[in-house]
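Hey, quick one: can you model this chain's 3D structure?
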Amino acid sequence: MWGAIIGDIVGSRFEFNNHRSKDFALFAPGCSVTDDSIMTLAVAKALMETAKEIEAGFADCCQLLSELTIRYMQGIGRKYPNCGYGGMFYRWMFTDNPQPYNSFGNGAAMRISPVGFVAGSEAEAVRLSEAITAVTHNHPEGLKGAEATVIAIFMARQGKSKEEIKARISAAYYPLDFSIDQIRPTYKFNETCQETVPQAIQAFLESRSFEDAIRTAISLGGDSDTIAAITGGIAEAFYGVPENLRSMAMGYLDPELKNIAEEWNLFLKRKD
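Sure thing. Here's the predicted structure for all 272 residues.
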């Protein structure tokens, strides 16, 4: 989760002012927490509360997770109305009867990273990803973008090599038959899963460290905060997150978001 938050914050100042180079300050004036981080934290909260209910005997994990995802995405998200939501998601956020709206936007993938860190198997990762994603992004491409992200994170957590991750994603989700250098000159802003998730995964695959993964993702241009958030989640699972970057990112969170992040840290430690 921290990888996604760091990617979001670092990329926030470049979303509409792309920087097609790896040479930039990671944290600088103009950086902020956007909807990517806020929804990632809401998903983390839903997962933690679902775990508590399951321990207490609730039977249907996925049904409960879907319900709690709606509760926390709306409950937390409504407190930050100007953080960058897309139009359809904004309307979903503030309606009293939220329904999925057949979206394949990259919001499905930018918020999903916590699933990759709690799933005990690939099958569980897929079930949890769908339960969360389908409350809004129930288009097949939206579900696929979130699932591909979660599977990449899960495989990285399991110690799989980049070659193994690339082979799996290429076979089951997206053809990763390009390099970042090849597509950078013509890549344009795009908010769909199918035009951001494979690019974000490729940025991770070409990286040499967590920081380099974030820099590579942002150097591509496009929807910089979301691409970097997706890349960052995978990079965290593969490399870990440098403590200095985690501490700097924590400074951008207000007390409520910081409390969720700290609760998540404790939750993961208990699971281990």
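One thing worth noting: The chain is about 65% helix and 0% strand.
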